[in-house]
Amino acid sequence: ADTAAEREMTDGFHLVIDALKLNGIETIYGVPGIPITDLGRLAQAEGMRVISFRHEQHAGNAAAIAGFLTKKPGICLTVSAPGFLNGLTALANATTNCFPMILISGSSEREIVDLQQGDYEEMDQLAIAKPLCKAAFRVLHAADIGIAVARAIRAAVSGRPGGVYLDLPAKLFSQVMDAEAGAKSLVKVIDAAPAQIPAPEAVERALGLLKNAKRPLIILGKGAAYAQADEAIRNLVEKSGIPYLPMSMAKGLLPDTHPQSAGAARSLALKKADVVMLVGARLNWLLSHGKGKTWGEPGTQKFIQIDIEPREMDSNIEIAAPLVGDIGSCVSALLKGMGENPSPPPAEWTGALRTKKEENLGKMASKLRKNSTPMDFHGALGALRTIIKERPDAILVNEGANTLDLARGVIDMYQPRKRLDVGTWGIMGIGMGFAVAAAIETGKPVLAVEGDSAFGFSGMEVETICRYNLPICIVVFNNNGIYRGTDTDPTGRDPGTTVFVKDSRYDKMMEAFGGVGVQATTPDELSRAVNEAMDSGRPTLINAVIDPQAGTESGNIGSLNPQSMVKKK
Ligand code: ADP
Ligand code: MG
Questions:
Q1: What is the rounded CA–CA span in Å between residue 418 and residue 420?
Q2: Ligand 1: nearest atom to the Cα of 282
Q3: Which of 179, 356, 544, 562 has its CA 20 to 30 A from that of 480?
Q4: What pLDDT, on the 0 to 100 scale, is given for residue 568?
Q5: Alpha-carbon span 455 to 424, nearest angstrom
Q6: Residues 118 and 86 sit within 8 Å (Cβ to Cβ)
Q7: What is the pTM of this model?
Q8: Which Gene3D superfamilies match (predicted)?
Q9: Ligand 1 mutation target, pool 96, 218, 308, 323, most atoms within 8 A of CB
Q10: CA 499 to centroid of ligand 2, rounded, Å
Q11: pLDDT in tens, 288-318
Q12: Phi and psi dihedrals of 313, rounded to 5?
């Protein structure tokens, strides 16, 4: 007879792996432990790439940026309670940044958790995840794994992308079922992120505004980079002749050296534009909410906004021409409606921006040539700027305060999705997770430019980088502290609150795990070491010695940093 022993069987472990693979997901970023240790092991045996990190937050950040780079949800796998919470930070950050990712966490037994009887790592993870992500699901039966994974994928990538939580209780993994029935229960998601075509009237409205604009401006955001509609976007900019401004992760959609880039005349462009078209960029704090002194007189500027999320419209100010749809479809519709030879924007406007831009670029050029020891930010960044120019397909990961603000302006990008940084929250700690995923997903060399403080949040992952032998070159801008290395304790008891051990040698950390460590004190030494790392592909950490006096409090966002007036009296 047909006994269980004779029939071919499968279980929860295998069904999760089969469901992911069926949907083209090939990589898992995670940290092993109870109850998902065997899941990672089996996934590796089944040919998936399993990248084990030292801390879940970095695995989660890796999954998130893998989602941004590939338009497929990145997978992060964690243990229960504490591991889940560590991964949750990355899931919330992914959701905030509109990156598709799925956090899969093992969890404890429902019966005990729900009665709060104190299980091993007891926590109602589903309830906790829900407000911090786009969707959250729990699977109790092995037969539901297929549909749950399908729902998670669709939720992550359709509409506005974001983070999804999938809760898998320990018991699920060893639930056994007939292999044939198991295979039938799997779901391959068809058209996971369907095109969303804008309404013709909405396209007309937007074109009407553009046509009558005297000082039009296009702002490209990371949604535009994510959309992978690179050619259409480039055509739109070039055919219309409209100056454009890239948000930081949209840099390189068109090369920063493009004649229409208004990047170096940002302040003037935002203040004076009369019609602004946002393409996958939100009017959040990064654009001063579309109002205030960054912008022109209220009511004098009109906005067109392309976004897949209808509720984004009017979130901060009135949007005169909302264009709801996916960026590829919207931009194509605009191109079509524009006709073959749209008249270019007035030369007075484009000329004014060009003049300002040349003036600002000239001012910067002299700072970049500075060859001082210890280096200041500009001297060191000047060297890195040349390296990216010569190696435009390398991926630049960037975090820090001054290290971030200044690198964003100094280092030109030439190709789409090559600049990965702190994103919408402006958080520290994404560095090593982003670098690992960038190397794994693209196979290209990665240059991670890190403030010494920012690096500290994920620094232990240098071991991960060495273990997988990834082509990642980390440059730590070491100015002995947060913002600057000069703070002191007024009472004389302890080190100042924002400083680190003086003259630390972060390069030694890399050597501890078999990577290459270099100490660089001049721009020339820095250049030489980075080029060597990029040529060899060996994991490298360069400790770039920066003047502890260099740097400003909170970098460019000092205005958000409250300071006591009483103290200053
Ligand atoms: P930035 O920080 O670069 O300004 P944001 O993260 O603020 O960018 O904005 C990205 C926007 O892009 C989000 O509002 C998101 O809904 C939108 N978006 C993401 N992917 C797409 C897409 N494929 N089509 C249209 N809009 C998209
Ligand atoms: Mg510092």
A1: 6
A2: 7
A3: 562
A4: 57
A5: 19
A6: no
A7: 0.97
A8: 3.40.50.970, TPP-binding domain (3.40.50.1220)
A9: 308
A10: 8
A11: 999 999 999 988 999 999 999 999 999 999 9
A12: -65, 140
